[in-house]
Design a protein that fits this description.
single chain, about 290 residues, alpha/beta, Rossmann fold, Hypothetical Protein, Haloacid Dehalogenase-like Hydrolase, Chain: A, domain 2, 2 domains, five-stranded mixed β-sheet, 10 helices
Length: about 290
């Protein structure tokens, strides 16, 4: 973990940003009672709670309502940020880059999913994302079934073309082995941002789009200094967010890249790590209500 020495007596927790999958949501999609209570405690202390997720707006809004997180909403890894219906960030992939990346997957006999504001469009020779394969479902049932639920909950259809409407995020895949390596190499030459780790289903967003940039916009909109921001995450797409926050917390089991920028590591989502850390921070650094 980074030794940034940010946890000092001057910290005031005013904004908490939470990732969803692996941070708030357990493998079966459940949210623990402890997590709900800890976030409710933060709200009672006047802390703004902000959901920051790679999910599209429809799914993100659902969980924000469940969590009663009424702060701005970071979706699609930061490509869209909402404050109510107002868009604070709206950064779709340039269409030519989206088409080029999708074609790269097709050349490797793979497939793609284009995430738009309202749903998903599937395309490519392969109609079965890796998360939907029998082997993946058997090895990682929670993660795979959560992915499939997300797909079927949202509007989706098949297409041979990347949709004309703005595409905010692409998911790309190819068969294992040389095809996957070739896809990875080809897409990483494009001027895009890839928050996913090599070798997995590739996530592609516009250059400069990160949860960290989105959280900065949220904090500045709310008039909150970065040192008063706490962020929780568990994956590579949370790196920039934890690096920006005054106090970044990695969940148990987080990858080494995230631990390098985190100020602390808590227990896993299965062990209610987020809830424990929120209660500890609020006890040690009670928020000071501003104004009024």
């Amino acid at each position: 973990m980074a030794d940034r020495s940010r946890e000092t007596d001057s910290v005031q927790v005013r904004l908490i940003a939470v990732d969803l999958d692996g941070t708030v949501l357990r493998g079966n999609g459940a949210i623990s009672r402890g997590t709900r209570r800890a976030l409710a405690l933060a709200r009672r202390h006047g802390v703004v709670v902000c959901v920051a997720t790679g999910r599209p707006p429809l799914g993100a809004r659902h969980y924000a309502r469940v969590l009663r997180a009424h702060g701005p909403l970071i979706c699609l890894d930061g490509a869209m940020v909402f404050q109510g219906e107002r868009r604070l960030v709206d950064r779709p992939l340039p269409r030519e880059l989206a088409v080029e990346a999708a074609r790269a997957a097709e050349r490797q006999a793979g497939g793609w999913i284009a995430l738009t504001r309202v749903g998903r469009v599937h395309g490519g020779p392969s109609r079965r994302p890796p998360q939907a394969s029998l082997g993946q479902v058997l090895r990682h049932p929670g993660r795979s079934l959560r992915f499939l639920r997300s797909v079927w909950r949202e509007q989706h259809h098949w297409s041979v073309e990347v949709p004309d409407e703005p595409v905010y995020k692409l998911l790309l895949w190819a068969p294992a082995g040389d095809a996957r390596l070739a896809l990875d190499e080809e897409v990483r030459r494009l001027p895009v941002h890839i928050p996913s780790p090599p070798g997995s289903t590739m996530e592609v967003v516009a250059p400069g789009v990160t949860k960290g940039h989105a959280l900065r916009v949220v904090a500045e909109t709310l008039g909150v200094a970065s040192e008063d921001v706490v962020a929780f995450g568990d994956a590579r797409n949370d790196i920039e967010m934890l690096a920006y926050a005054g106090y970044g917390v990695a969940m148990g089991g987080a990858p080494a890249e995230l631990l390098q920028v985190a100020d602390a590591q808590t227990e896993s989502v299965q062990q209610d790590g987020l809830a424990r850390e929120i209660r500890r921070l609020l006890k040690k650094y009670p928020p000071v209500r501003r104004g009024g």
